[in-house]
Amino acid sequence: MVSIKGGEFKMGSPNYEKNRMADEGPVHKVYVDSFWMGKFEITWNLYNLFVSREIDQYQRSKSNSDEVSIDVDAVTGATTPYVEMSFGMGVDDFPAISMTQLAASKFCEWLSAMTGNFYRLPTEAEWEYASRVGLEGNEYIWVDEQEPEGKVMANIWHGRFPRENTKKDGYYTTAPVGKFPPKGYGLFDMAGNVGEWCSDWYMPNYYRNSPVSN
Fold first, then answer.
1. What gap in Å lies between CA 111 and CA 141, rounded to an integer?
2. Which residue has the higher pLDDT, 146 or 186?
3. Comparing C-alpha atoms, which of 196, 194, 165, 191 is closest to residue 180?
4. Binning pLDDT at 50, 70 and 90, where does residue 103 land?
5. Which end of the chain, N or C, is more open, meaning fewer C-beta atoms within 10 Å of its C-beta?
């Protein structure tokens, strides 16, 4: 986990940005408290422990210093998948994919029960704050204006910047976590690789009802 100091930033996309959707603005100021965030995307190595639940018997003994004190048996498990959920992209050190937001939330609850430490999905504001690392106004928030596009292409795994090894059997694939250099706070794969769940639910008019930044 990486400690991220809280602060204020401008969230959302201005209306002049190319490919901007109507629900991405207007830009508004948001303050986030300090929080912790995972250095890497959750891998199948870890997520499958939650799916199988074979290590539940090794839940750590509870203590008064625990942030969370719940029995792991009380945490709902993941539904057994009907197909192989990595879809052949890779398991060892590859990011876990295709789970629902509920399953991702229950994974956090299970991990909290197993360790005694509190884990949760980040809010949308926390995720964007961590990803922007102080940058504002970029069409793609991982793009540093001082970095040429060629360098950006070499440092992310994304279909917008395709390379031969991003495809397998004609389909885009994932990459092992941490394959490319971290950005800003030391977080890996904040841009590219796989989409990441947040705790918020979708409201198409949410930004429109937020205070607008000057």
1. 30
2. 186
3. 191
4. very high
5. C
In one letter, which amino acid is 164? Answer: E
Which token pair is 63? 């203590």
Cα–Cα distance for residue pair 183/2, rounded to 1 Å = 12
Give the type of residue at 125.
A
Averaged over 15-40, what is the pLDDT?
89
Q: Which of 69, 179, 62 is nearest to 118 (CA)?
A: 69
CA–CA dist 211, 28 (Å, integer): 6
Of 84, 40, 78, give the one whose Cα is nearest residue 56: 78
- Model pTM above 0.85: no
Q: Report the amino acid identity of residue 18.
A: K
**pLDDT of the residue at 112:** 96
In contact, 110 and 50? CB cutoff 8 Å? yes
Report the alpha-carbon distance of residue 148 to residue 4 in Å, rounded: 27
Angstrom distance (rounded) from CA 22 to CA 15: 8
Mean pLDDT of 166-178: 71
Identity of the residue numbered 82: Y
Per the DSSP assignment, residues forming a β-bridge with 2 are 37
R_g (Cα) of the chain, nearest Å: 19
| SS3 call for 207 | helix
